[in-house]
Design goal:
The chain is of the alpha/beta class. The chain folds into 2 domains: about 200 residues, Rossmann fold (3-Layer(aba) Sandwich), CATH 3.40.50.620; about 30 residues, no CATH class. It has 6 helices and 14 strands. Strands 9-13-8-1-6-7-14 form a 7-stranded parallel β-sheet, sandwiched between helices. Strands 10-11-12 form a 3-stranded antiparallel β-sheet, with no helix packed on it. Helix 2 crosses helix 5 and helix 3 crosses helix 4. The radius of gyration is 27 Å and the shape is elongated.
């Protein structure tokens, strides 16, 4: 009797995942000061805790479902190299740094996201999941989700490999199940990231990082706010010469909204 292996029983959903990473600035030795001089130490910069958790979730997914993880960063210079090598040491398959623009600048976000999406389409990259650690100063994840017509889940506090998620609200917890394709921002509470072993770190240091450059955004006109100071007339209230000075002062303070 010939046994035939059931191929479908071992078939897994191969996922394509992009993790967009940034450096964490919480390290105490990133900036040091001596007298009037502030020194910047990029060697003390590592992946942000939120992005480590984002990468850890991506790793958990491909362990269960199979697939590949592409890491991207808009950080510049040595900082980008450091955190992308760190991401590869932890398990990312490829690393790409965008060497144009500053994603933290609100005026550049739309432009950079547009160029990133165009690059992904040109490269034939279509992701099931795009994930990044939550950041209060940037809304680029929401812009990506909108432009690519992907589902968007923001500030997740918990999520499992079956896409069941939790999101803490001001008065309770919202629970549900994510739907692919999706863009996620997460807090560090979703998991405890693993540590890279020595051999993985050694291999990652020698791994290739792809550089992508976009045409620089034309200099935008910036509206200017001009502040003009008005010199108000000086008034002196002398209780010795004017018995009504107190009531006049109170009336003036009320008129100017200083006193009610």
């Amino acid at each position: 009797m010939k046994l035939v292996k059931n191929i479908n029983s071992d078939r897994r959903m191969l996922m394509k995942i992009a993790v967009i990473i940034k450096a964490g600035l919480e390290h105490l030795q990133t900036y040091t000061s001596y007298k009037n001089k502030v020194t910047y130490h990029p060697e003390n910069l590592f992946l942000s805790t939120e992005d480590k958790s984002a990468l850890e979730y991506a790793l958990q997914l491909i362990e269960v479902k199979g697939g590949l993880i592409d890491a991207y960063s808009f950080e510049q210079g040595e900082v980008a190299d450091r955190i992308l090598h760190e991401a590869m040491a932890l398990g990312a398959n490829t690393a790409t740094k965008i060497v144009t623009g500053d994603l933290k600048d609100p005026m550049q976000q739309n432009y950079l996201v547009k160029k990133l999406i165009q690059y992904l389409k040109n490269e034939g990259k279509k992701y099931d999941l795009i994930i990044t650690g939550y950041s209060s100063f940037s809304q680029f994840a929401a812009i990506i989700a909108d432009k690519l017509k992907m589902n968007y889940y923001d500030q997740l506090t918990n999520i499992d490999v079956n896409f069941n998620y939790e999101m803490k609200l001001e008065k309770g917890i919202l629970k549900g199940q994510c739907e692919l394709p999706m863009v996620i921002t997460n807090l560090s509470s979703i998991n405890t990231p693993r540590l890279a072993n020595f051999s993985a770190v050694k291999k990652a240091i020698n791994s290739k990082i792809t550089e992508v450059s976009f045409k620089k955004l034309n200099k935008q006109k910036v509206s200017q706010i001009k502040v003009e100071t008005e010199k108000s007339e000086k008034m002196i209230f002398n209780l010795d010469n004017d018995p009504d000075a107190t009531s006049k002062l109170i009336t003036l303070l009320e008129r100017n909204g200083i006193m009610r």
